[in-house]
Amino acid sequence: MDFFTNTNILFFIAAYLIGSIPFGSILAKTFAGVDITTAGSKSIGATNVLRVVKETNPKLAKKLGIATVLLDALKGTVVLLFAMYYGVSDSTLWAIAILSVLGHCYSIYLGLEGGKGVATGLGVYIVLIPYATLIGALVWIVCAKVLKISSLSSLLGLVAVVVSATFINNGLNVGSNVPMYLIAFIIIYKHIPNIIRIIKGEEKKVI
Asked: Membrane-spanning regions, if any (predicted)?
């Protein structure tokens, strides 16, 4: 078996490399002329794009923030859809999903730095556990409007996805919920600084 002609291996590599693309950083540099990896929270996610670009161009900040969310979500979705077209196993699909999120959070293009994984997690979850993800997305949107704290809203939405999927998709067609939990763990781990600030009442709101 040739390593570089094995379908699963090629999809694993593609998932990580595509997941690593820092769309937030690229968009902010290209259209706003700012480096978000050295400003704000230094994250490549939509929230930091919004915060940093908003300082000079509020209207552009919203557009770039939305574009970042969509592109970060599609990073995981597109690879999974291609893999499904090629008929790979459910276990392989979940491995692709995990690698997509890892790529975003630990980008090879940024020296293994990256974002928090929320949008990319949403992108892979919506393919693999769609109903639970829609519930989580609704919780995320409602909490964001009410609480106006991006990190807390994201975490609550994530919890809603995991809890919902536990009841709706028990086993995830791979005999275990571990892959779903692992993605959630990665996202929560990347949010530890935010969680500490939330507990201390120091987490900033997105207005």
From this structure: 9-28, 64-86, 93-112, 124-143, 155-172, 178-199
Please give the distance of CA 54 from its chain centroid, rounded to a whole number. 22
Question: CA-CA distances (angstroms) from residue 46 to 73, 111, 170?
Answer: 11, 20, 31
84-113 pLDDT, tens digit per residue, is: 999 899 899 999 999 999 999 999 998 998
The 8 Å CB, 24+ separation contacts for 62-70 are 64/24, 64/27, 64/28, 64/31, 64/32, 67/23, 67/27, 68/23, 68/24, 68/27, 68/119, 69/119, 70/119
Residues in the chain: 207
Count the neighbouring beta carbons within 10 Å of the beta carbon of residue 108. Answer: 13
Closest to 24 measured CA to CA, from 79, 61, 55: 61
Rounded Cα distance between 205 and 87, Å, is 43
| Type of residue found at 185 | F
**Rg, the chain, Cα only:** 17
